[in-house]
Amino acid sequence: MNFLRCWILITLTWIPKSGAAANRPTACKYAGYIFTMDCTDVKLEGLHSYTYPVNSPTLLTLILQNTGIQTLEPDVFSQLTKLTRLDLSRNQLQTLDYRLFINLTELRSLDVTNNRLISLTDGRLFTSQLKLKYLKLSSNSLISLSKGILTPLVSLKYLYLSGNPFVCDCELREAMLWCEDRNVSTNAVCYYPRDYNGSSWQMLSDLNGCVESQTDSNGKSAIAVLAVILPVLLVVIGLWWIRFKRATARSDHRQRDEPDDRRSEGN
Predict the structure, then answer these.
(1) Contacts 24+ apart (CB under 8 A), 7-11
(2) Which helix (H) or strand (E) holds 34?
(3) Is 193 part of any domain?
(4) Is the pLDDT at 94 greater than 90, yes or no?
(5) How large is the angle between the packed helices 208-266 and 170-181, nearest 10 degrees?
(6) From CA 249, how far away is CA 267, in angstroms rounded?
(7) What pLDDT digit, counting tens, does each position of 153-177 carry?
(8) Could you tell me if residue 219 is inside a domain?
(9) What is the DSSP letter of 200?
(10) CA geometry: angle 190, 64, 54, nearest 5 deg
(11) CB–CB of 125/147 below 8 Å?
């Protein structure tokens, strides 16, 4: 399975994405009355915190759709503390740094559709997004999605995952069960293994091997803990036994000495 993941990762990295539009606007459009910055199709060489167009702390909506972004600095959105909607769709992002959204505590909608994301596994990524309701991750190259990524999203209602080549295994099953328990629909479809190709990831709920694997894992963990605790416990018991024997020996010695002392006093 690890070999399969590596092969998929290498293959998907080279999948070409759609090119830029022939006639691109040269500047972002700012609508002050609704605090919206729209940079759709504007070619951005790079984004840096404290610089245009991410330097306005009053922004509520920022649209960076199809701007050619390949990477984002960890603190690029640090000034946008009031932002409620962020659109990063149709770019070339392969990874998201866990610090990227740390100051976006008011975010309600995040769109990262049509990028090149391969996996999301760092549980710190969305720890500040307690109000996020819409998370759009469709049409990426995601082969896995960690449950730990989703756990902080207590307000999540809509999760868009269609168009990703997911490897439907026990790791992905945990994310699926999390969504199922909260009635969050995703339209996620399995791509690998071949037997599951085209099937909804909800088929993972019947994957008994994962339950057995989890049981085995728990059993091995219990044995490992016992292997550490048992020697320590035996040492403690041994030390206690030695102290007990020494105390008993001293007590017996005193009892033997007392009659001799009494006879000496009588004489």
Answers:
(1) 8/143, 8/165, 8/167, 8/192, 9/118, 9/143
(2) none
(3) no
(4) yes
(5) 90
(6) 28
(7) 999 999 999 999 999 998 899 999 9
(8) yes
(9) B
(10) 130
(11) no
Handedness of CA 85, 91, 95, 99 (dihedral sign): negative
- How many whole angstroms separate alpha carbon 90 and alpha carbon 54? 18
What total of structural domains would you count in the chain? 1
Q: Which residues are within 8 A (CB) of 69 and not within 5 positions of it... i.e. 6 or more apart?
A: 44, 47, 88, 91, 92, 93
Pairing between β-strand 190-192 and β-strand 166-167 as defined by DSSP bridges = parallel
Q: Which of 63, 5, 3 is nearest to 30 (CA)?
A: 63
> Does residue 76 lie within any of the structural domains?
no
CA atoms within 13 A on the CB side of 96: 26
Q: Is residue 3 part of a domain?
A: no
Give the model confidence (pLDDT) of 21-76 as tens digits. 457 778 999 998 999 999 999 998 778 888 888 888 999 999 999 999 999 999 99
Structure tokens at 146: 């960690």
- Total-model pTM: 0.71
For residue 227, the enclosing domain spans: 207-251
| Residues across the chain | 267
Rg from Cα positions in the chain: 31
Rounded CA-CA distance 48/51 in Å is 6
| Unique residue bearing structure tokens 């403690």 | 236
